[in-house]
Amino acid sequence: MELQFFSDFDGTITKEDTLNKFLKMYANKKWLEIEDDWLKGKIGSKECIEKQMQLFPKMTQNIVDNFLNGIEIDETFPDFYRYLKSENIDFFIVSDGFDYFIEKILANYGITDAKIYANKLKFEDGKFYPYFPYSNRNCKRKSGVCKCSVVENNNRNTIVTKLVLYAGDGLSDFCVADKVNTLFAKGSLLEYGKNTKIDNLIGFDSFVEIEKYIKDIKKGERNARHQNEIV
Fold first, then answer.
1. CATH number of 59's domain
2. Domain span at residue 119?
3. Residue 113: which of 148, 78, 75, 145 has the closest Cα?
4. How many domains is the chain built from?
5. Per residue in 165-212, pLDDT tens?
6. Burial class (CB in 10 A: 0-12, 13-18, 19+), 104
7. Strand order in 201-203's β-sheet?
8. Separation CA 94–CA 106 (nearest Å)
9. Half-sphere exposure of 155 toward its Cβ, with a 13 Å CA cutoff?
10. pTM of this structure
């Protein structure tokens, strides 16, 4: 069975939510009211992000980049990413954050070729202009990135049906949680998975655990092939 792995970024690959930290440091405090509306389901993340990105003062590229240089990722992720590449396992980051943030952070750890589905961010004259190439008008959560569509479209476009694995940690992952074969979860996503009795739910703390899970699958496949050859 071929595997396909999707991962959220903020709070899953990074140690903290990048955009939330950026808002806390630089945005007008009104961002908290908008965030609360999103958490309560009054608005979708697309509208939330559009409103919040208007609350920053004029900034320089240097300020933004210096901020991103201070964001840390899970120390186990780079080795995990290299392992997936060595096994030719398709890997995708699917995030309701911004591609520029993600690319800059990963580049600091030597990762420059990850496939990323995220909101786009234009920075011009010190102001931010977000746009949303992966939104979906039918998205029930009205997200900037419709993670369900990304996962479903990627699997639909493959000749061979793949076992879909997903890792996440929060609210933006809730809608896709029951649309994958195995869900690796932490934070509020783990609680959501338990409360809604998601099948194949696995709690995790680091990517070492996920790598071991995949290796066990691979080992089982190799053993099965070996048994068939003997028979």
1. 3.40.50.1000
2. 3-230
3. 78
4. 1
5. 999 999 999 999 999 999 999 999 999 999 999 999 999 999 999 999
6. middle
7. 127-131, 115-124, 90-98, 3-7, 163-168, 182-185, 201-203
8. 14
9. 20
10. 0.93
